[in-house]
Amino acid sequence: MSDNYVPDQILGHADEADGIEEYDNRLPRWWLGLFLFTVAWSPVYAIHYHFIAHRSQAAEYEAEMAAAAERWPQMSAEDVAKMEVTEDVIAEGKAIYEANCVACHGADLHGGIGPDLTDSEWIHGGTRDDIIQTVTNGVADKGMPSWGPILGPEKVAKVAAFVHQAGGGQ
Amino acid sequence: MSVEPDAHRAQPRAVDYDDAIVKKFIVATLVFGVVGMLVGVILALQLAWWPANLGLEYTTFGRLRPLHTNAVIFAFTGNFIFAGIYYSIQRLLKTRLFSDALSNIHFWGWQLIILAAAISLPMGLTQGKEYAELIWPIDIAIAVIWVVFAINFFGTIAIRKVKHLYVAIWFYMSMVITIAVLHIVNSLAVPATLTRSYPIYAGMTDALVQWWYGHNAVGFLLTTPILGLMYYFLPKSVERPVFSYRLSIIHFWALIFLYIWAGPHHLLYSALPDWAQTLGMVFSVMLIAPSWGGMLNGLLTLRGAWDRLRTDPIVKFWAVAVTFYGMSTFEGPMMSVRAVNSLSHFTDWTIGHVHSGALGWVGMAAFAMTYWLVPKVWKTELYSVKAAGLHFWIATIGIVLYVVAMWAAGITQGLMWRALDDGGQLKYPAFLDTVLQLMPFYWIRLIGGLSYLTGMLMCCWNVIMTVKNAPAGDAAVQPAVAK
Asked: CA separation (Å) from A125 to A103, A132, B160, B276?
């Protein structure tokens, strides 16, 4: 760059711009630096993301799920099936019920938006396995969501154990 | 060599400029500004207090929301841009507009399109594409009227009396061409009935075309033409030379080249292939500097006029408009970064971002231009400079309330959605949990929106009083409808 640059020199187009004058100042250095930096960074990021780190949306999801499985180990389906219904399990099930189910089935299980869980009638079956199925898959027609993906098999089994006991299941 | 600015140089006015068309577009800008912002305030109320839905299908959020966005983007901003372009290109090119007939077809055609939108959207007639909701017959009308505008615009350039095209005109040209391409490509559909059609694209392709359109509607309707208007009206208002011609060329070409690729940032963490998501993200990051080039050229043109910042509301409006432009164009690229987007996407942060651009940049620029232009075309003085100054403060406080409330709401929402409990389950699985938490922010947003609308009404009153005081003969087009 020549050193005889003098800022704020009028360009002289004003007669062709309704009287608006323009200086021909240099690009602010920091602005040019910012621009060149983002332009240089972009291919570096893209190449690193795809070809060096081999990152992807799917890999990100799998990594998060793996980390969650390690931090919050889930009982296997077999363990859930073999789970013994103890006082502790019932108590945990009660807590799960209170956090998720009371809005529709009521704190005393007498129903409201959803059916009464204490009467003798079990619309979708009253065994513990039936209740696990109903909670897991929900009842779409009646507005009950599928809780399987939200609670996971262990919590479903525990809440079913609570409902089975407190509601007088078959 | 003299370094003194020479912006006062008198132009011999040999040409009979068409200012009647400019007046019409100004009136339409103000009318639809009030309508668009009023509907926005109603929507803000509905979100805070659901009975404002009124229990009528026509006034539910889903019907009114597209009415608000279309009214503000295409009616308020559209008419504002047309007013500014038609005023400035005649002066810059030293010629009357190419065709008075085309000017009037453009004006009335555009208003009819707005009327059709105002009827069809509350009726629930929609294509279901955001910012492109209007049904196919209206889409065709838009394309036709846009071509009329393009012929009038390029016709005026063709018959110009100067050789050099001032920077404002390059920005206008980028809008005229790009909006035509965006609108036509995104609206391609097979009509089934008079009110219903099916897009020719399916699935992810449809989404990608839609957001290529959606993002560049922001780029080429809410950004480039208004930068063009800034390059004309800002130096005119402060009577100072533009800071850098060189910067204007470089940021212009960089801006329009980079903008068009950034659309996929609306589809981060979707079914869009990873490589396309990366493309959207990096092109957004590269947009920071080209956008800031416009902000710098605006702010640095105000050098030497900073004393007027205390007294001249027009300078205040420009300074805040350009500052919000700089802020929004930093925020946007940040939100396009994957890690940030995973928190901000689908939250009210997005709503805050778009309003810092719409209220802060577009709106404030529109007011700056209006307060300068109305006295010029009606050949009088602004009725109340004091009221314009008050408008400035009410509007600025309104924007700050709005944007800060939405930042807080958006981040709260994003954090609640991803929060896990001790057992690794969602801590707030019910959407309602988050909504209840956002209520205070929704009320603050309503207050912000009401302030901004109040300012808009003050502007209308000021313009009406200005026009009333205009010398007879030049007050032919009174903004009577604005009452």
From this structure: 22, 10, 84, 49
